[in-house]
Sequence to fold (456 residues):
Amino acid sequence: MICVDSLEVSYPNKFHLCVEDLVFKSAKITVVLGKNGSGKSSLIKGILGLTGTERAMIKPSFEKVAQKESLGVMIEGTDSLYSRLSVRDSSKLYSVHRNQVFDEKRFKEIAENFGIYDHRNTSIQRLSTGNKRKAYLTALFCSRPKYVFLDEPTLGLDLESVHKVSRFLKEYSRHAQSIVITSHDSNFIKEICDDYYLIDNGKIVDSDDRASDLNKALEFLKDVCAE
Amino acid sequence: MFALNKLMLECLLYINELRSYWFETVSSLLFYLLLMLGIYWMASSDGLSNKTNLVAHMTWVVSAGLFTSLVMIAKTDVTNKVLEVMHTFPMSYSKILFIKSVARAPYDFSVMLLTLLLIFVAFKPSVTFFDVLGDVVVLYLYVVPFVYSFALVSCGLIIAFKRAEVFVVLGNALIGLSAYAYVKSGSPPIAVLLDGIYFASALVSLLGSYLIFYKLRSWTLKKGALGHI
Fold:
């Protein structure tokens, strides 16, 4: 479980994020919803200590080595991999950087699940955008993270791949401490969401754990974006 | 164990990089070798003694290799947008930089050996190959804390301002000038230079550069600009 008692982030462009009493429950997938620039990525960066904070009371603290070993992070839908490494070597490097032993069997299992195993010896630069995303997700989940933060994980993925990712996340969440996801893909959100927080202009405006309310939140988001 | 694993994977990453950029690697190596031969030829016709000139020249080659490696690592991490994720790893970024620079050291030494070999073939200097090589290794170990410090500060500036090219050119030129200043000053033996002042200044240089690197990184992090390119 992750408890954000309070978090305040300010940027020079006057954007201010201020949230309190957020709980990302164990074995659940929590989705952070919001329009562009509402503060979703800043919330994740603030929790992870990747941006300056004015106030941060977060349990557990992700500044500690022990927590960093059990983290899985995707920022702003970026496949943060070296373009010259193969899919397999990227997974190996990612696991080693997390102080985890690379498990060949697990790699095969996850890569097959995401449909990237046939490209295991292909260098990242030769992959399509969607396959790069799958390669990164494979590397991330090979390191067995307990706390997972995925910021826009479905960018560039086709419908079938999105479905594979959501099925995998549902299964994975049963053993994970917490999974936090931001996304604009409403079908994906509906498939995976257990709890949600709706964020607007740096503040939480709605939260719940009921599917009916999620639909209302998505409608609200649609209206806000249309405006 | 993990540090050794990281080192091996970093070596693999570097070999992959060199292999996949094979054309750039070979052409830039040829250009670099020709440039270094040309500079050596100009310096030796300047009346500098054969051995000290060679030693300083070779130390420049290998030191510039270390400096360029570190700067290019930081540049690659910025352009590949991996900096933010790297800051969530248990090992600090400065340690990762150190491991990466160690992984690239064999290539820098190979370039130096190749340059030295070519100089011996082309100019037939009146000194022995291993005599020069021994002095280069000693002088390199002497300057390495300062070169590393200089490179670390440059890495901090790259992380903060995302520009690398200017640091590569200026850094290499500065290292070259320092090497020739050493020759011009009469190249005192390293044993004479290894005193308390040397060790103190090496330590201050390393600590100071780490502090500057840390401050620049923290400043970038505070702005939320680690992942910007």
Summary: Chain A is about 40% helix and 25% strand.
